[in-house]
């Protein structure tokens, strides 16, 4: 029944999506149909953006290559169904979106949904209760990201599979799983120091640590394949991005709150220049904290993710997916404040998307699918049908003020949860208890 409801909700969200991100994903499908590297398209469009004075870069496909491997056969199927499909390159800041059919939405979202169900299964096994399966699949924020946005769930699958494999003493598989997640989106690499520290503190043999790290490095190299140069260009793009998003730096992107918005850009760029050193220092302090304080591997992953939230100059809303399963496990294990932390880590991102998106823009793709060219009025006006003056995100000053407030709240929440005292379990994890017993049994001969 849970599975059927989860599938039904995702099917309901099928023709809905983030207008810019889904447009980019469609163009990546066109790249793959023509056997063209999206990294080359990224470079070409960025050069055009600079020459046309649109921006210093064109925000195109800016991720590692594993999604390209997964979507290649699906894009070929789409090419067979639509042999005359063409690129749809929108200007940054415009409201233009392509007219897409249900087949594209299904082909794009199917791997994401499969990842969701695998994550839910692992979560239930780690917690020893079906609640993990239910609470993940039916979580409103998970439904928003996986049902109407992007493929963060595929990245998250690699991360949680790596943690599960560590508990089962499958160190090579753990390294491969973590590499898979890293090569979907870069973020799972933040768990690498935490897992190594955990293995050292558990007095695991050096060869097991070597197997884990070695398999991770080799798997990353294999998955990079011929796209190493493209990934380096993507990393350069990310390092040059200004701050903002769902953190305190969002204030410098909120021009409607200030009389002269042009004065904000130099401040934003100046603070962003220190983004990488600040993130490195934050992670070093987090590693020291994990080394000094006795905590579970799940808590170490949480500390790593929260250090990223605190130290990163840019936090997009969907990044909160990183914390969802691990915060749920911690709430299930220790109860108390973590039950509230878990709720806030998905409620605040939904509220932020509602005002910062805003949320009604997710309907544009649906309008174009249903009304075709008659929906062109949205390109000119940006209307969505939710123009009632009582809707707060229709007023830029109110929307930006609330977004800034939520960004500050998320940053403070991340810092408080990071420093929250490590508590002992009030309820044994039934699933992980068996895994821990196996680990202890493996340690006896050595």
Major sheet: 2 strands, parallel
Spatial order of the strands forming the largest sheet: 1-2
Gyration radius, rounded: 22 Å
Count of separate structural domains: 1
Uncertain residue ranges: none
How many beta strands in the DSSP annotation? Answer: 2
Determine the number of helices (DSSP H or I, runs of at least 4 residues): 21
Q: Order of helices and strands, N to C?
A: HHHHHHHHHHHHEHHHEHHHHHH
Mean pLDDT comes to 89
Explain what you see.
With 446 residues, the chain is mainly alpha-helical. It has one domain (2-443). It has 21 helices and two strands. It has a two-stranded parallel ribbon. α8 (152-167) runs antiparallel to α9 (171-182) and α17 runs antiparallel to α20 (396-419). The longest helix is centred in the N-terminal third of the chain and has 26 residues, at 102-127. The chain is globular, with a radius of gyration of 22 Å.
Care to give the gist of this entry?
The protein has 21 helices and 2 strands. By secondary structure, it is an all-alpha fold. Keywords: Membrane, Transmembrane, Transmembrane helix.
Features:
single chain; 446 residues; mainly alpha; two-stranded parallel ribbon; 21 helices; 66% helix; globular; transmembrane helix; transmembrane
């Amino acid at each position: 029944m849970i599975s059927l409801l989860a599938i039904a909700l995702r099917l309901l969200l099928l023709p809905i999506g983030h207008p810019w991100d889904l447009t980019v994903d469609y163009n990546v499908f066109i790249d793959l149909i023509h056997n063209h590297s999206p990294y080359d398209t990224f470079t070409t469009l960025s050069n055009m953006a600079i020459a046309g004075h649109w921006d210093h870069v064109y925000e195109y496909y800016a991720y590692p290559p594993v999604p390209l491997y997964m979507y290649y056969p699906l894009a070929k199927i789409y090419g067979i169904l639509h042999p005359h499909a063409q690129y749809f390159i929108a200007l940054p800041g415009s409201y233009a979106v392509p007219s897409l059919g249900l087949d594209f939405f299904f082909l794009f979202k199917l791997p994401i949904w499969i990842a969701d169900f695998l994550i839910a299964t692992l979560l239930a096994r780690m917690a020893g209760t079906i609640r993990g399966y239910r609470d993940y699949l039916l979580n409103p924020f998970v439904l928003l990201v996986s049902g109407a946005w992007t493929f963060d769930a595929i990245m998250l699958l690699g991360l949680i599979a790596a943690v599960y494999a560590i508990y089962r003493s499958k160190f090579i598989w753990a390294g491969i799983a973590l590499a898979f997640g890293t090569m979907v989106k870069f973020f799972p690499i933040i768990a690498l120091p935490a897992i190594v520290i955990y293995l050292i503190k558990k007095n695991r043999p050096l060869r097991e640590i070597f197997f884990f790290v070695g398999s991770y490095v080799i798997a990353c190299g294999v998955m990079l394949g011929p796209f190493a140069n493209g990934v380096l260009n993507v990393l350069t793009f990310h390092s040059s991005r200004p701050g903002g998003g769902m953190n305190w730096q969002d204030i410098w992107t909120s021009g409607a709150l200030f009389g002269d918005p042009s004065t904000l850009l130099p401040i934003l760029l100046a603070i962003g220049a220190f983004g990488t050193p600040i993130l490195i220092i934050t992670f070093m302090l987090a590693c020291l904290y994990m080394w000094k304080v006795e905590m579970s591997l799940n808590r170490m992953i949480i500390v790593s993710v929260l250090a990223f939230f605190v130290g990163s100059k840019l936090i997009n809303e969907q990044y909160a997916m990183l914390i969802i399963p691990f915060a749920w496990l911690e709430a299930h294990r220790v109860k108390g404040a973590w039950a509230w932390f878990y709720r806030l880590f998905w409620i605040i991102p939904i509220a932020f998307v509602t005002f910062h998106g805003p949320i009604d823009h997710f309907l544009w793709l649906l309008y174009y699918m249903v009304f075709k060219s008659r929906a062109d009025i949205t390109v000119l006006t940006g209307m969505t049908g939710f123009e009632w003056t009582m809707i707060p995100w229709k007023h830029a000053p109110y929307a930006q003020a609330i977004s800034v407030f939520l960004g500050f709240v998320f940053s403070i929440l991340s810092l408080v949860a990071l420093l929250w005292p490590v508590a002992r379990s009030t309820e044994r994890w039934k699933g992980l208890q068996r895994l821990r017993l196996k680990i202890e049994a493996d340690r006896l001969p050595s």
